[in-house]
Design brief:
- Helices cover 39% and strands 20% of the residues.
- The chain is of the alpha/beta class.
- It has a single domain, classed as Spore Coat Polysaccharide Biosynthesis Protein SpsA, Chain A (Alpha-Beta Complex), CATH 3.90.550.
- The strands form two sheets. Strands 1, 2, 3, 4, 5, 6, 7, 10, 11 and 12 form a ten-stranded mixed beta sheet that branches. A two-stranded antiparallel sheet has the order 8-9.
- Helix 7 crosses helix 10 (279-287).
Length: 315
């Protein structure tokens, strides 16, 4: 039987962490390690997880190392065959891991798997059924806001949301860059899309398995963008360009250029009109070109998959 570790990164997560951990410890599939990395929470998170110390490993950081950095810490602590990357605001069904692991054992090239994530705020409403990529290079959670009845069949997807993603440790080792599975330059946001793309290039596949279900309290709610701190919006904005520079193929960019240009014009006009504080992000991305192109060379040195297969997921 393959071994599984569960990794949770907390940052002021006292509202959710007890329910999340309780669900993890009730999984019908045996969990070998539960690793919690706390990113210098200032609330009651550490106090609330103290009663779980006999069942989990807790690492308390003195500073916020971000989603990417903290999850890389957890991966370094794990000795298991699979890693479940889990947000603290997710409540797993007791059979979530059992169903995903059964599917994983039957699909050896499955590098990433996810179940049907449902919104905590809407009965039967999809939060994520995997990741999809548009031709304009915008990524979305598949099915978000739609009725779950339309997402009852398992299928291959471009990638999986790191809110509740099961990753093969073999895939993690193969696509890691300089010892980093999640690119720590991303800090937070879109690091799972970057992972999905890198995994695709090396021939790994991703699957949505609807029999495994979970509830997710989405942190970035629709219509609340301008309420987010600038640093949060900056990471999200800049990381889209980071993943494109690292992973996109020039011939496919040319093929989809009308879609990309149309979106870039609309986005730039929006930023000038509504979020001028994001304008310096363009300069930061440009300054990072050298490092990004170095990463790009490393990624394309490992390519095993046909580009047409990968880009068939771009709709």
């Amino acid at each position: 039987m393959s071994t599984v570790s569960v990794h949770i990164v907390t940052f002021n997560s006292d509202k959710d962490i007890v329910g999340c951990l309780t669900a993890v410890l009730r999984q019908s599939y045996p969990v070998d390690q539960v690793i919690v990395i706390d990113n210098a929470s200032q609330d009651r998170t550490l106090e609330l997880i103290r009663p779980f110390t006999d069942s989990i490993l807790i690492v308390s950081n003195n500073e916020n190392k971000g989603f990417a950095g903290a999850h890389n810490q957890a991966i370094d602590q794990s000795i298991c065959d699979y890693h479940l990357i889990l947000n603290p605001d997710v409540i797993l069904h007791p059979d979530y891991l059992h169903i995903l692991m059964k599917f994983a054992e039957e699909h050896p090239k499955a590098g990433g798997l996810t179940g049907l994530l449902l919104s905590k705020t809407g009965l039967g409403v999809v939060d994520s059924a995997g990741l999809i990529m548009r031709k304009n290079r915008r990524a979305f959670d598949r099915g978000q806001g739609e009725n779950a009845s339309g997402y009852m069949l398992p299928c291959e997807v471009f990638g999986v949301s790191a809110a509740a993603a099961l990753y093969s440790s073999r895939m993690v080792k193969e696509i890691s860059e300089a010892g980093q599975f999640f690119d720590e330059a991303f800090f937070a946001y879109k690091e799972d899309i970057d992972v999905a793309w890198r995994a695709r290039w090396t021939g790994w596949k991703a699957y949505f398995v609807p029999g495994a279900t979970a509830l997710h309290e989405r942190g970035w709610k629709s219509g609340a963008r301008l309420e987010k701190p600038l640093v949060t919006r900056s990471h999200s904005f800049e990381n889209r360009y980071r993943m494109l520079i690292k992973n996109d193929k020039a011939s496919k960019v040319l093929l989809h250029l009308p879609y990309i240009i149309a979106f870039e014009i609309i986005q730039f006009l929006y930023i000038v009109g509504k979020e001028r504080d994001l304008l310096p992000s363009y300069c930061r991305v440009i300054r990072s070109f050298s490092g990004l192109f170095k990463q790009r060379r490393q990624i394309f040195h490992k390519v095993k998959a046909r580009s047409d297969e990968i880009y068939s997921f771009f709709k």
